[in-house]
C-alpha cells in the first residue's frame, strides 16, 4: 500500500512528524537552559530538571505511539492482503478462482499481444464427477477435487496458471502452442487416471480438455474462453478423456 495513497498512513506520519518536532523543540530549549544554567540561577535548575524529565517521558511516549500505530498498520495491511488473496483464490483447492484467472488471462494476453507470442488456454472438465458426488456425497467430491488439483499443481510450470473456475471445471493458461501443449494436456489427462482417494478406490474420473490458441482462435478473453469451451465439448463428444483443439 503506497503511503501517498493511504490516508491512514498519511495521518500516521503526520502525527509522528508533529510529535517529533515538538519533542525536538522542547529538547533544544532544555539543552539551551542547561548551557546557561549558571546565568539563570539556582531556581532555574528545578524547571530544567522538570523539562528534562518531560522530554524523556515524551520520547518514551513517542516511541510507544510509533510502535503501537506501526503494529496496527501492519495488522491492517495483512488483513487487506488476506482479503485480496481470498477474493482471487478458491478456498477448496487453493488455486486461483474464476475472478483471479480472468485477471491473469487479461494480463497474459496483453503481454502476449505486445511480445507477439502464442498463448494456449486449456479448458478442463471432469468426466464422471457428478456420479461420485451423488454416490458418496459432496464431502468426498471435495476431497477428490483437492487431490486432483494437487496432482496438477505439482506438474505445471511456474509460468503456467492453473485455476478452478467452479464445480468440476478447471482452466490452465500456458505459453506456446502445438505439440508441446499437447504433451501437457496428455499429462493432465494421465494424472487423473486411477484412484484419487485411498478410501474410495472406485471413485474414478477422467478429464476432457478443450484448447484454444491466442490469437488464432480468439484475440480477447471472451472469445478465447468460448473457443476453448466449445473444444472441450467436442472432446466429450469424441469419447471423453481426451483433448481437442478449437476449430
Description of the structure:
This protein is α+β, with helices and mostly antiparallel strands and 247 residues long. It has two domains: 85 residues; 148 residues, Alpha-Beta Plaits (2-Layer Sandwich), CATH 3.30.70.270. Helix content is 62%, strand content 14%. Strands 2-3-1-4-5 form a five-stranded mixed sheet, with helices on both faces. The protein is elongated. The N terminus is likely disordered.
Sum this structure up briefly.
This protein is an alpha+beta fold. It is built from eight helices and five strands, in the order ααααβααββαβαβ.
Q: Kindly provide the name of the CATH class of the largest domain.
A: Alpha Beta
* Count of individual domains: 2
The CA-CA distance between the termini, in Å, is: 45 Å
User: Any guess at the CATH architecture of the largest domain?
Assistant: 2-Layer Sandwich
Strand content: 5-15%
Extended strand count: 5
Described by the principal axes of the CA atoms, the overall outline is elongated
By CATH's scheme, which homologous superfamily of the largest domain applies? Answer: Reverse transcriptase/Diguanylate cyclase domain
The percent range for helix content is 55-70%
Order of helices and strands: HHHHEHHEEHEHE
What would the CATH topology of the largest domain be? Alpha-Beta Plaits
Q: What characterizes the major β-sheet?
A: 5 strands, mixed
* Count of alpha/pi helices: 8
Would you tell me the overall average pLDDT? 85
- Uncertain segments are 1-5
Radius of gyration over C-alpha positions, nearest whole angstrom? 31 Å
The structural class is: alpha+beta
- The neighbouring-strand order within the major sheet is 2-3-1-4-5
